[in-house]
Amino acid sequence: LSASMIALSAGAAAAQNAKPRNLILFVPDGLRGGIVTPDTTPAMADIRDKGVHFKNSHSLFPTFTMANSSALSTGHYLGDTGTFSNT
Asked: Rounded to two decimals, what is the model's pTM?
């Protein structure tokens, strides 16, 4: 009986957290972190200052838009995604 009650309460908690959520993945192609300042890019600097900051971020090599975007969005290197350049 106890195991059933635990299972039911866990299922109800999971159902409450099953709301769909949106994710926006923005890839600033070729933008160096040192350029993001409150003077040059105020909105991006504000987002960074509120906690979304990658201190040691860098592009893959070769530094092509599609290759870097696919690696960032999937977490896989170029050989895994099949994207090696912008074609």
From this structure: 0.47
